[in-house]
From TrEMBL:
This is NADPH:quinone reductase. One of its GO terms (molecular function) is RNA binding. Homotetramer. It is found in: Cytoplasm. PANTHER family: QUINONE OXIDOREDUCTASE. Residues 10-296 form the Enoyl reductase (ER) domain. GO terms for cellular component: cytoplasm. InterPro entries: ADH-like_N, ER, GroES-like_sf, NAD(P)-bd_dom_sf, Quin_OxRdtase/zeta-crystal_CS, Zinc-ADH_QOR/CCCR.
Amino acid sequence: MKAVQYSEYGDSSVLELAEVPEPHPGPGQIRIRVHAAGVNLFDAKLRSDFRNTGEPLPEPVVPGSEAAGIVDEIGEGVSGVSLGDEVFGRGPATYAEYAVLRDWALQPSTLTSEQAAGLGATGQTAVRALAELGVGPGETLLVHGAAGGVGQAAIQLARHRGATTIIGTASVRNHELLRQLGAIPVEYGEHLVENVRAAASGGVDHVLDAAGQQVDELVEIAGDPQKVLSLVDFSRRTPVRTSHGGKEPAGSLQLLAELAEKGEYTSRVAATFPLAEAPAAHDLSESGTANGKIVLVVD
Ligand SMILES: NC(=O)c1ccc[n+]([C@@H]2O[C@H](COP(=O)([O-])OP(=O)(O)OC[C@H]3O[C@@H](n4cnc5c(N)ncnc54)[C@H](OP(=O)(O)O)[C@@H]3O)[C@@H](O)[C@H]2O)c1
């Protein structure tokens, strides 16, 4: 099958279209014929060896952690899904014609496969982060980096959890987008603290950092580092709470699918690229200007 892979760490030019062996599902997994695969900034971080391992790659890597497509193989012990079902979900090596999913849900009828492909990673991250923060009814949440994929997911999911006021930081060009999602937009940068205080006269109960910048100011706004959860700043320079991927909350993809089916959740596709243009997709992701999901369309 065709897949995008890289054999050495580097910039987006290391990504190449290659012929690789097809994967098959193990117990508890399914395989899909991929329609579309979501691109996440983390894919580019891994590609560029952000952990500075300094070691050469032992074998080529096919990037990707989310996709939507048609079920074409079902692993041992799997129930509730049939061959031919349209699903979306999470699994490794999704920049490919076929991919194995470890976690999935039926694709909502309200979404295209491009939208569904990019629903899993940012959506699950937002579900996890809001649960860890304990965002609840009547509360005020500040989302820093609100126009990005995670930020947009967090705004919609905070509304579902009953938050009454959601303030989002973004560039001015994205303020209308935030209003449409139900957030009060404010600019980040020099006047971040004043801007948020003007928008939230009663203060904020929780802060979700999806940008990794101005974390000290976020703590000043919250009045307590324990009210700030960062998805990006793991430096421990400021003692905020952090959260990273790994164990995603059970049922989170089903929750996202149910909300999407009811028209209460969507995934904004900012740009699509054919598989062969994965380098351009990574360049756009790394520019931080996409304001929505970047998706590779496979067929
Ligand atoms: N820990 C985890 O589990 C986890 C999971 C997923 C993602 N992440 C991380 O979370 C971050 C966001 O991911 P994403 O997919 O939402 O990325 P994204 O779609 O590229 O969005 C990034 C957003 O950051 C905003 N931004 C840029 N510079 C900023 C600044 N100085 N201050 C505030 N906001 C700024 C941009 O908004 P404007 O365009 O409006 O300027 C942009 O919309 C990434 O670093 C990603 O690696 C962590």
